[in-house]
Amino acid sequence: MFDHFVVSVVVCPVLVALAVRWLADRLRPEAAVTVLVISVVSAAAAGLVSLGTFTVKAMAELHPVAVRLGFSDAVVRADTSREPWVSGLSVVLLLAAVAGMIRVWQRHRGENAVAAEFRGLPVDADRVAMIDDVRAEAFAVPGRPGRVVVTTGMRSALDDQQYSALLAHERAHLDARHHHLVLFARLAAAAHPVFRWLTRRIEFLVERAADERAAEQVGDRRVVARAIGVAALRASGSRVGLPMAPSGSDLRRAGVVPRRVASLLAPRYAAGLLALVTVPLAVAAGSLIWTGECVADLGELLYTAGMLH
User: Fold this and answer.
1) What tens-digit pLDDT sequence spans the chain (309 residues)?
2) Could you state, in order of their start, the residue ranges of all structural domains in the chain?
3) Nearest residue to 232 via CA among 204, 210, 267, 260
4) Whole-angstrom Cα distance, residue 260 to residue 224?
5) DSSP one-letter code for 11
6) Where does the sequence pass through the membrane (predicted)?
């Protein structure tokens, strides 16, 4: 069974991460971000199931457990006799992954609690809630229905075209359920450390996807680019939901705003490259299939151990 551990926990996640990292800057974000997130989540899920399978094997290697369940622990241990450490390592990795995912979920619930404060605000016909606040803020608040919250400080900073671009950007977040994509990416990063490398990249792709959708709605990519620049200059740095204006931590990271603006001003990516998005998806699908075989192999191993008891 050791080969299943190597493929599903080590090789496939690394291949998916490398593929997503390479493709992220070469594909149209609005077309690719969902598939890339699905690839990452699928690979992370396959790794989790593999770790869970080896954790069950680790329990089965314990003599008291084997005696109680009526099978030979020696037979179970013999399957990975050359790699006796793999079962124990799987237990540790699984516990770390679960703990990390719990922390991500708790953070998500905390963000939801903050967002809930804005869901009761009155909105206009465009699902916009205007708050009287000199700070320049604008963000999408998911819900049924979702809404866009804008402060008077942000509204006064933008002209009518830029304001339309801002609203189109935030509605793109709501319509595409980008908050779900970000949550899934964070859970995948908690489940497997290699995907932590991609979290910021996926969050950036989500923003880029909303930028592109806004550009389609407004009909002028330069207007959206200018709106991003103005919003960045006026933003206070606090964050709720998925804002068009980046936070202070975004501004301190190299080139978040300039990259978004430059991407809007540059020629669009060629559509022909979109087929490459199937590469990480295929690797992740293969990992899921291989993990299924791992579960089946454990079942056969435990059956054999029971027969030889």
Assistant:
1) 889 999 999 999 999 999 998 888 788 888 789 999 999 999 999 999 999 999 999 999 999 998 888 888 999 999 988 999 999 999 999 999 999 999 999 999 999 888 888 888 888 888 899 999 988 889 999 988 889 999 999 999 999 999 999 999 999 999 999 999 999 999 999 999 999 989 999 999 999 999 999 999 999 999 999 999 888 888 745 444 444 444 445 444 446 788 888 888 887 665 556 678 889 999 999 999 999 999 999 999 998 988 776
2) 2-307
3) 260
4) 10
5) I
6) 6-24, 31-54, 85-105, 269-290
How would you class 257 by CB atoms within 10 Å of its CB: exposed for 0-12, middle for 13-18, buried for 19 or more? buried
The set of residues, in sequence order, having a beta carbon less than 8 Å from that of 14 and lying 6+ positions away, is 194
| Both tokens assigned to 61 | 């290697």
What percent helix, strand, coil does the chain show, rounded to 5? 75, 5, 20
Give the whole-angstrom CA distance, residue 258 versus residue 99.
Answer: 36
Q: Are 297 and 49 in contact (CB under 8 A)?
A: no
Residues recorded for the chain: 309
For residues 12 and 286, what is the distance between their CA atoms, to the nearest angstrom?
8
| Three-class SS state of 122 | coil
Q: Where are the beta strands (DSSP E) in the chain?
A: 128-131, 138-141, 147-151, 242-243
